[in-house]
Design brief:
The chain contains 6 helices and 7 strands. A 3-stranded parallel β-sheet has the order 3-6-7. A two-stranded parallel sheet has the order 1-2. A two-stranded antiparallel ribbon has the order 4-5. A hairpin with a 3-residue loop joins β4 and β5. It is globular, with a radius of gyration of 18 Å. The N and C termini lie far apart (about 50 Å).
C-alpha cells in the first residue's frame, strides 16, 4: 500500500489529468453539440506494466479507470442530460460499483473473430462475451466490431450479432475499406 506522500502525489496527478486533459475534451465535445463520447483504450488499466506504476495493483488501476469513467459521465450528464458515455472494450469493469449506471453502451472488438478471420476461442473471448451479454441485459447498447474478410466468417459474425441483439459491423483492422453492413 502506498504511503501518505504517494497518495497525495497520486491524487494531485489524477486531478491534473482531469483538469488539464480529460475535462477540456469533454467540454469541447459538449460545446460542439455531440450527443456523447466514445472512450477508446479503457483497457489501458490492464495493459500497463505494473513495475512502471509503483504502488498500484491491477485492481487499483481498474477502480481508477471506473472512477474516471464515472466522473466523465456525471460531469457531462450534469451539463447535457442524455449525453452518451460509450467505453470501448473491458466489459469486465461492469463488476465495479458505479460503472454500469455511468455508461450507456459499450463498443466491443473481436467478440467472434480476431484480426483477421481467426475465430475468437480463447478463454477471455468467452469471458468478454459473458460480460457483454450482462451489459446488454442491463439495457446497454452493444456496438460490436469483428475483423473478418472471408464471406463465411462475415456471415457468421453478422448472424451472431442478430442472435445476441448487438449492433455490429464486420470489417478489416486498417478500417480503410467500407464494408457493407450486416443484413
Amino acid at each position: 500500500m502506498p504511503g501518505e506522500g504517494q497518495l497525495c502525489r497520486r491524487w494531485s496527478s489524477e486531478e491534473r489529468w482531469w483538469t488539464d486533459v480529460v475535462r477540456p475534451r469533454v467540454d469541447q465535445a459538449l460545446r460542439a453539440g455531440f450527443d456523447g463520447v466514445y472512450l477508446d483504450t479503457t483497457l489501458a488499466y490492464e495493459e500497463l506494466d505494473l513495475s512502471m506504476v509503483h504502488g498500484w495493483t491491477r485492481d487499483g488501476l481498474a477502480r481508477a479507470m471506473v472512477k474516471l469513467i464515472v466522473r466523465i459521465s456525471r460531469y457531462a450528464k450534469a451539463r447535457h442530460p442524455g449525453f452518451w458515455i460509450v467505453p470501448q472494450n473491458s466489459p469486465e469493469l461492469r463488476a465495479y460499483p458505479g460503472y454500469v449506471p455511468a455508461i450507456d453502451g459499450i463498443g466491443m472488438e473481436e467478440l467472434f473473430f480476431q484480426a483477421t478471420d481467426r475465430p475468437c476461442v480463447a478463454d477471455y473471448c468467452a469471458e468478454n462475451l459473458a460480460h457483454t451479454r450482462a451489459l446488454r441485459d442491463a439495457g446497454k447498447l452493444v456496438l460490436a466490431v469483428d475483423y473478418a474478410s472471408r464471406p463465411r466468417n462475415v456471415k457468421i459474425a453478422c448472424r451472431r450479432y442478430a442472435e445476441e441483439h448487438f449492433a455490429g459491423h464486420v470489417t478489416v483492422v486498417s478500417l480503410d475499406t467500407i464494408k457493407p453492413p450486416c443484413p
